[in-house]
Write a structure and sequence with these properties.
binds cobalt (II) ion, 209 residues, alpha/beta, 2 domains, five-stranded mixed β-sheet, single chain, globular, 17% strand
Length: 209
């Protein structure tokens, strides 16, 4: 699709929305009040608002390859800080997905590319949980479990940031969740991870150990 077509599609989209709701853009341009921060994969098939059927304005997002929260990543940390301190989101969702190319690449161990440095974080998770992963029969099962373990690890990483700890200490209500998206049927699976205070985070760390 040539880039000109994107401009045309944008015009049509804006016109259709304005016909439906003449105040839409003036309302949107005033402010954003999202209740959710979504930390997901850059994969083009997992767009946050679409898969939970919410309109623009409802979810603040951060995407990177394989939805990783790294403590030296100023980009991700800034998003989390802005979401918590300025937008005052109530829910932080770490959303992984099955069939993630980043997860696969992390275990494939191919040549050195820049992305390998990023994926090292996932290779570390694989190493920590190797016994559990090796007990599975198929490669697909192993990759699926690794995608889930990655979500679990990144939920813990969100909870370890000074920003969220400060928020909890000051009594701000914010809960961190871990979900995974099943590409094959469009369903979100709840991984049962819900953390809304420092005490609960300790439980997650104990489960990991
Ligand atoms: Co992915």
């Amino acid at each position: 699709m040539p880039i000109d077509e994107l401009f045309q599609r944008n015009k049509d989209w804006a016109a259709a929305l304005t016909r439906e709701d003449p105040e839409y853009f003036s309302r949107m341009s005033k402010d954003q009040r999202p209740e959710y921060l979504w930390i997901g994969c850059s994969d083009s098939r997992v767009p946050a608002t679409q898969i939970v059927d919410l309109p623009p304005g409802k979810i603040f997002v951060h995407y990177n390859i394989a939805n990783v929260v790294v403590h030296s990543d100023l980009n991700c940390l800034s998003v989390i800080q802005y979401a918590i301190e300025t937008l005052k989101v109530k829910h932080i969702i770490v959303a992984g997905h099955y069939g993630c190319g980043g997860i696969r690449a992390a275990v494939e161990n191919k040549e050195n590319r820049m992305i390998d440095n990023w994926l090292r974080h996932i290779a570390d998770i694989e190493r920590i949980h190797r016994a559990k992963l090796d007990a599975l029969e198929t490669e697909e099962q192993r990759l699926n479990l690794l995608a889930e373990l990655n979500v679990q690890e990144q939920v813990a990483n969100v909870c370890r940031t000074s920003v969220i700890r400060r928020a909890w200490e000051s009594g701000q209500e914010v809960t961190v969740y871990g979900l995974i998206y099943e590409m094959a049927n469009g369903q979100l699976k709840d991984l049962g991870l819900r953390v809304n205070g420092i005490g609960q985070m300790t439980e997650i760390q104990q489960q990991e150990g």
